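thought: fold this chain, then report.
action: predict
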Amino acid sequence: MIETLLAVGIVASLFVGFNIGGSSTGIAWGPPVGAGTIGKTAAAALMTLFVFLGGWTVGRNVMDTLSEGIVTTDLSLSGGVAVLFFIGLGILIANLFGVPVPTSMTTVGAIAGFGLATGTLNYETVTQIITWWIVTPIIGFWVGGVIGRYVYTEVNQRVEIESSDGPLVTLDRTGAVPRPTLGPNTTTSEFGSTLVVLAIGCYMSFSAGASNVPNAAAPLVGGAAGLPENLAIVVATLAIGVGGFTIARRTMESVGGELSDIPLLAALFVMATASTITTALSAIGIPISLVMATVMTIVGIGWGRATRPITFREAVSRDTKHKEIAAGAITAEGMAGEPAEPIGAAEPEPVLNAGDLFNPRAIIKYVSMWIIGPSVSTILAYGFFVLVPGIA
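observation:
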């Protein structure tokens, strides 16, 4: 009986990890793939490797919080399987609404529902987690706003990410020992910028592993019949990797709604900022959504770029004195080598529409799912464990 239940739990864990891999790989590698910097297969391989490293190192802190911190008792194997079911249900609901999955929040909600039903909820830990859920979007927005107003335009005038035809690196076989050399059309600048793009993609993959591997693994860790932590991490990583090699191939193409419709340089700022926020919180054991930090950083950079023609005081007070502010300035590409206009001066070129992510309705939809997702998983898990107490 226990072996059968454990097998069901592993299948549920694989399902959760598979879906995480599909969404997270698209977010981490969609922009580089869309820019032709790296192929989908290579991106999935790097995603799997760095997800494992993130889950094996920083992710253990989140694992401890999910498996021991939210409730004051060990989650039984049957209870863990049920929690995984509600996590998967939360992923399905988010997918039906077409919103990136707030997996960490859904996981916390399902475990909190178990705690409420059994009287074992650690309110202090849950309060701390929810506080960070409120603060994180604010941090992402304001960091993005500072980058958009004061950093992005300056860097955009000086840096041009090139992509030439042909291989980036080739082997020079003229000597006794073949040695790598730049491709026939590759410049030193292109080689350096490509390394930066790949490094940030790997960093975001690491961050995704730190925050998401515990979501698929933690419900099966602990208890007399649970999986050992190391094995659970490996199982979750393999599932995320399979998702990266399969369904993520489509999400890497369609992720433009989040990242690839904006310039690659802006996407790199978003990825680096969101990854840093997520990794830092994972290091202190806070289950956090990488999508949350990503979306709000995008909105912040867009707001910062859009409000460059006015002063900071005018932007905050909305006293624009009839100055025209173009929403969606994040999508405006400057020309490398041209001086940036100073703060308060009108942009020399009209900015483009940012699309859905700078649309207030879209923002409301995202924020609503961040509230609805964990709330639904909490309510459903609570109701289930109250009606079927023997499972807990």
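thought: worth noting. The beta strands are 169-172, 179-182.
final: tokens above.
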